[in-house]
Fold this sequence. Notes:
Blueprint: H1 4-9, H2 12-18, H3 22-33, E1 35-36, H4 47-62, H5 68-80, H6 94-115, E2 122-123, E3 126-127, E4 129-130, E5 136-137, E6 140-141, E7 145-150, H7 158-172, E8 181-186, E9 191-196, H8 197-204, H9 209-220, E10 225-226
Parallel strand pairs: 7-8
Antiparallel strand pairs: 1-9, 2-6, 3-5, 4-10, 6-7, 8-9
Helix pairs in contact: 4-5, 4-6
Amino acid sequence: MISSAQFASSHHSFWSDCFPALENYVRVINAGGYERSFNELSWPIAPLRSALVSEVAFCMRRHPSLTISDAFSEAKIRLANLPGVPVDDQQLSSDEAKAATDLAHRIGIMAQRIAGNNIPLQYDPLFSGCGLLNHSRGDIRTTDVIIEVKSVDRTFRSTDFRQLITYIFQDRSTGSSTIKKLAILNARRGIFFGAQLSDFVSDTSGSNFTDIQNKFFAAVGSGGASR
Length: 227
């Protein structure tokens, strides 16, 4: 069994066959095809602490009643499950706490802008396992939108979109077909991009989504959800 992130970052023949124009699509976005909500955030954070601060921000947004200390404890638990992410017991400095608070605010504002005013946001949505894929949790979704949250200094990558599409495949494996839009936000850079699923498929693939979905099920060895 593998994670959705592992599938999104591997299985290159599947991705190149099903979404041959994805790399160029992402280049166009990074050349200015995104929308901006905020200026880039000042980031006086040591690189080895960046992932922790970003995770604290997500925990604060997910549970607004959490104190910084509680969000720090939850973030450490969440990051402990991720390979290659350094985590220590040193509490956040004042600069780190401010950065986390600013990021949490941005995540909420940007996600709501993508989803629409007054649309409830579900954090950590669960997606069923499918064939060789374990069940997984996304970042944010509504009934019809799936949002990937980044808080990094890099541009968007094709693997970001692969991750979103993998979640949609997993959702479809249960018989659901409610997700109609995908989006990525980068809270640290203050930018986001969103597209209707139908437009994304049209722009990145020479096939239709049903055919691609069938190829996905064949690739993971399943025609439906697994437990």
